[in-house]
Please model this.
Amino acid sequence: MKFNFISENESEEINNIIDCLQNILAIPEGSIPLNRGLGLKWSSLSTVPEDLENDYATDLMEKVEKWEPRIEVVAVEFGYGEDGQATVNVQIELTETEDNEEEDEEE
Model:
């Protein structure tokens, strides 16, 4: 499965976050000792596309919320190539942190 991350904000921080997300989402859940919750559930990959999309998007959003609090997932859309390859388009936004709020107040 291929992931495309879409963000209106192009910055070094977003690129760093996307690298982290690529790592997190490539790990099968339960495969890291002492951190069994890291990664996505792969059990839904063998289901029909409608169930796959819902289960996978829900799991993805929960894991991003838990493991990458610097961003929020705004939308998850699936596309399928002629070869059957699934592509997940994930729209993300930076979350408001205390640092971001302080910068906004200074301006």
Observations:
- Residues 36 and 61 are 17 Å apart (CA to CA).
- The chain has a mean pLDDT of 82.
- The helical segments are 12-26, 49-67, 98-106.
- The chain is about 40% helix and 20% strand.
